Amino acid sequence: MDPLGPAKRQCPWRPCLAGLLLQLLVAVCFFSYQRVSQDGPTGSPRSGSIALESVTSAPNRPGDTTSTNGSRCQATSGAPARPPLLILLWTWPFNSPVSLSRCSEMVPGAADCHLTADRSVYPRADGVIVHHRDVMYSPTTKLPPSPRPPGQRWVWLNMESPTNSWHLKAMDGRFNLTMS
């Protein structure tokens, strides 16, 4: 008897969960790119993006400049930093919760975002991911409320074959993106 045989039969959902996490990562990268592309190209000056503040009592530091009248000035960003992208996982795929963390912790160097399953953040979420299998039996009651907030993206996540994906007509016109 194979000692690993029972272990393989106990965890058939693990490959699906790994695929789901990969798809979540792809969605996060897409939403991060979408947020950056809406901000405009980097390095392009916008009106009010650089403000000069007079620093009279501080010693000269790297990054300080001297104005024409001899007082020290420091360049600071006038535009407030945007909050991280907020992505709401509406349903846990296959009802299997996993720990969610910031995008920069999962992928070093990625734009920061916040993944959550807290439905109370729905009105201000930038994106909502809905797993089809968990809402397909009663989509009108299990989908997020309509109308969606302006600018919010809905992502339809499906990890089933088309023959196991029922009630697809009920999903028509509701989602901006798909993920499989």
UniProtKB/TrEMBL annotation:
Its main location: membrane. It is found in: Endomembrane system; Membrane. Its EC number is 2.4.1.65. It is a single-pass membrane protein; Single-pass type II membrane protein. Residues 84-180 form the Fucosyltransferase N-terminal domain. GO terms for cellular component: endomembrane system; membrane. One of its GO terms (molecular function) is 3-galactosyl-N-acetylglucosaminide 4-alpha-L-fucosyltransferase activity. The keyword Signal applies. Keywords: Glycosyltransferase, Signal, Transferase. SUPFAM superfamilies: UDP-Glycosyltransferase/glycogen phosphorylase. It comes from the Eukaryota. It catalyses: a neolactoside nLc6Cer(d18:1(4E)) + GDP-beta-L-fucose = a neolactoside III(3)-alpha-Fuc-nLc6Cer(d18:1(4E)) + GDP + H(+); beta-D-galactosyl-(1->4)-N-acetyl-D-glucosamine + GDP-beta-L-fucose = beta-D-galactosyl-(1->4)-[alpha-L-fucosyl-(1->3)]-N-acetyl-D-glucosamine + GDP + H(+); N-acetyl-alpha-neuraminosyl-(2->3)-beta-D-galactosyl-(1->4)-N-acetyl-beta-D-glucosamine + GDP-beta-L-fucose = N-acetyl-alpha-neuraminosyl-(2->3)-beta-D-galactosyl-(1->4)-[alpha-L-fucosyl-(1->3)]-N-acetyl-beta-D-glucosamine + GDP + H(+); a beta-D-galactosyl-(1->3)-N-acetyl-beta-D-glucosaminyl derivative + GDP-beta-L-fucose = a beta-D-galactosyl-(1->3)-[alpha-L-fucosyl-(1->4)]-N-acetyl-beta-D-glucosaminyl derivative + GDP + H(+). Residues 38-47, 54-77 have a biased composition (Polar residues). Pfam families: Glyco_tran_10_N (PF17039). Residues 1-38 form the signal peptide. Residues 38-78 are annotated as: Disordered. This is 4-galactosyl-N-acetylglucosaminide 3-alpha-L-fucosyltransferase FUT5.
